[in-house]
Amino acid sequence: MAPTIEKPDAPSCARNREPILGVLRTHFADRTRVLEIGSGTGQHAVHFAAALPHLIWQTSDRAGNLAGIGAWLATEGLPNLPAPLELDVAGAWPRNRFDAIFSANTLHIVRWSEVELMFRRLPGIMTGDAKLAIYGAFKYRGSFSSESDAAFDAQLKACAAHQGIRDFEAVDALASRAGMRLAEDIGMPSNNRCLIWRKAG
To answer: pTM of the predicted model, to two decimals?
Structure first.
């Protein structure tokens, strides 16, 4: 008998899933197939897939996280949650195209060079009118939105020098070069943002 894999738990997912879902209900209402980049524990995926059954929600992450994601997917058994894909931005990308891309709390974890690479690769998997939704903390004009964000940034850098809260303007410039236009910048609890871009037709 195969060993039971314990489901990973990220408390932040329980705190932010409802505010994010509120945004997705609006912006992904007319979408059909979502790729989540950096699914982490898989908790967001099962919550959103259950609440938005019209979407095929494709999870993905680096190899080390796939077992934990799979444990959550197996427990829920939702028909719109296919098996997770291995996806490292510097490695192989899916061949399928998606009309929506979602990523939460990833840009401040990966290297900036990987953020740049991700945006360069995104057009190759996006349909002509695809939307990109990214959730997390951002700086604006080089400044933090709160003292707690500044403390969080310092904590990230103490863990790994390449980590840190990204500048909105720099990320928006990457999206623009990838053929996307900002559709909405939405304020979220705890000084987070949900940024929505749409691929220019």
So the answer is: 0.95
Q: Which CATH architecture has domain 11-199?
A: 3-Layer(aba) Sandwich (3.40)
Say what angle helices 168-177 and 112-121 make with each other, to 10 degrees: 30
Model confidence pLDDT, tens digit, residues 59-109 = 999 999 999 999 999 988 899 999 999 999 999 999 999 999 999 999 999
CB 72 within 8 A of CB 43: yes
Q: b/e map of 76-102 (b: 16 or more CB within 10 Å)?
A: eeeebbeebbebebeeebeeeebbbbb
pLDDT digits (tens, 9 = 90+) for 108-133: 999 999 999 999 999 999 999 999 99
Residue (of 100, 104, 97, 81) closest to 17 by Cα position? 104
User: What is the C-alpha to C-alpha distance for residues 142 and 153, in angstroms, rounded to an integer?
Assistant: 12
Rg (CA), the chain: 16
d(CA 191, CA 169): 17
Q: Determine the residue type at 10.
A: A
Residue 31 in 3-state DSSP? coil
Contact 43, 13 (CB under 8 A): yes
Quick check: 84 and 70 in contact, CB under 8 A? yes
Tell me the sheet residues that pair with 35: 58, 101
The domain spans of the chain are 11-199
